[in-house]
Write a structure and sequence with these properties.
Number of helices of chain A: 3
Structural class of chain A: alpha/beta
Shape of chain A: globular
Radius of gyration of chain A: 13 Å
Oligomer: heterodimer
Strand order of the largest sheet of chain A: 1-2-4-6-7
Order of helices and strands of chain A: EEEHEEHEHE
Largest interface: A-B, 22 and 25 residues
Largest sheet of chain B: 6 strands, antiparallel
Number of strands of chain B: 22
Distance between the termini of chain B: 126 Å
Structural class of chain B: alpha+beta
Helix content of chain A: 25-40%
Helix content of chain B: 25-40%
Largest sheet of chain A: 5 strands, mixed
Number of helices of chain B: 11
Strand content of chain A: 25-35%
Number of strands of chain A: 7
Amino acid sequence: MKLVDKGDVLTVTDVTELGANNSDAFRDEVKAALPNGFKTVEIDLSETNFIDSCGLGALIAIQKFATSRDGTVAVRLLHPLPPVQQLFELTRLHRIFEIVPRAA
Amino acid sequence: MSEPRGKSSTCTQFRYALPCDLAEVPSARQAVRRFLNEQGLHEEELAACELALAEACNNAIQNVRHDGSVRPIEITILCTSSKVEISVNDHTPGFDWPEQIELPSAESERGRGLFFIHSFMDTARYYRGRNENSLVMSKMRCHQEHRQSSSAAASIAEVQERLEETQQALSEMARELCFRTESLSAIFRCSTGLGRSNNLPDFSQQLLNDLLHITSADWFVLRNVRESGEELTTLVVSAGFDGAQQPLSIAKPSPIAEVQAAITRRDVVFGPHRPLVADDPLVNKAGGAGMVRPILAGGNLVGTLAVGRALSNEPFTPPQAKVIQTFADFLGIQLVNARLQEEQLSTRLLGHELDIAQNIQRSLLPRSLPQLRHFGVAGYCESARQVGGDFYDVLQLSDNSLLLVVADVMGKGVPAALFAAILHSLVRALPEWTQRPAEMLARLNWHMYDELSAVDMFVTAQIVLINAKKNQMTVASAGHCPVLLAQAGTPGLKRIAPEGMPLGILPTTQFIEEVCELRSPCRVLLHTDGLTEAPDVTASTRAQHRLERWLQQSLARERSAAQLRDELAKELRKAQASMPLKDDQTFLIVAENQLEDAGIG
């Protein structure tokens, strides 16, 4: 996992899996980076092959943490692969996340 | 760590020991994915199994409440051509599997693991033991890919197997369709037939023969419930079926299959596993199997239908049983319809019979009555709806004598009316033999005794001979109510009832005559007991008093017989008021005075 500082935007890349084994660390790292004046967090899911319920939990925790800070930080999920997109839809989380779909 | 074994075309097994550590889960996941990929699972199925396995392992690991030497989690995968089964066996305290697995709210960070297992797998069962739990999940394989690999031969065999299965399923479906079409067309055929014929047994026979054909059965017994509701009687049986002709009592429980079905109102299935009792009328020497269906209509039992096989012990298949049930229900409607039609017909017949009786009775009454100088006679007869046994007649025997007859045949309808007709003819013939009332009654009894006693009927009658020359009347009675006489110079009314048995009681009997002098003016009333009939004795006595008072008081008025008849008829109708007439009302009234009578009866 890599965190890239792009001024107003914090981009999280290189997430190949988001499961019970690494989701806590992922959550804590992103949360720790947030107070540094970012307006948007973009989590790139284009290389994420696997997410389980703990992974989803981590994304929800980040979203909650970001909006609890006066609603100033927007969370955006970028280009999820079809199986991951399917999980968002199955759990109806696609309604609460801003998801940027993959180019067709 | 991994240990694939026993790979064959039917079932492949894979075992994996997962250390109790979340960091180890990805390796297990990947190993399982590799194995399942080799088995030809589709990507979607692979992803589903991988996620379910991960969630199961996470749960098992996260539920460890104590550290130390925790034994590894055992993962076992069984894979066949149609199904994947994943077992995750842990050695932890376990957790309570929820009865209902629901999607948690969007804000919740936890609780989606079981939801995923539930969503992505077809079945999931959690067996919880003492520090050992097993979660067994299975998934049917839908998207099977047969890759061109070393197992090509096995794949072709599988394809053939599946093709055969499909063919078999198709032919089952075709058979089922034929079966349903046949049942429906049999019902339609019979319904059309029913419109043309009202014969329920013929109709049922035809319908049930079709049923035998459709369900590959050999015999049937259709019974209906008698009106009492306590007996089943046989309506039709299949050709060549012996027995089952005797009625069956359903008043109390019995092991007989038809009685059981009738009482419990449930289907009774019999065969080798549940043989019929020895005295069951459905017992067939060759054995066999079958079922009894109670026939209900509007919640009421109307009959039973037993259908069975004589030579085979094979029970009916569920679709066959369903067809038998449908036919039975359909017959139920027909049984009820037939019963209603029968009831309507018998009501119509009864009405018709009463009309005949009334016509006979009316035809017996004379259109006009003979009159004597100074003696006027008038008659009245009002029929009750269900009775036709009263009649009166007046015969002129000479210039100075009249014979008056009033009779009441005890009984109803056509039989009573017929006896009245016989009596009428005999009375008309009597004066040729004798002109004495007592002898006449004896002769009538002698002629009618055999016929009356054969049907337990009898007749009450009275005969009055008025002799104007002698100013006398002679009265004889066969068990009839008294002749009433009111005349001048007598303070009270005279009731004349000489002894005599009703006609038809004894083969030979004697009658007594009573002779009365008549003084002008006088009134003589012959009547039947219908005039004073009332619901109870007190009311009847009151009616009798009223009648007698009216007759006594009529002496004071100068009235012709016809006028008196009209007055009395009016009185009777007034007393009757709103009550329907229960018995015929008949009377003959004689008025002796100087008035010239119109003489119309």
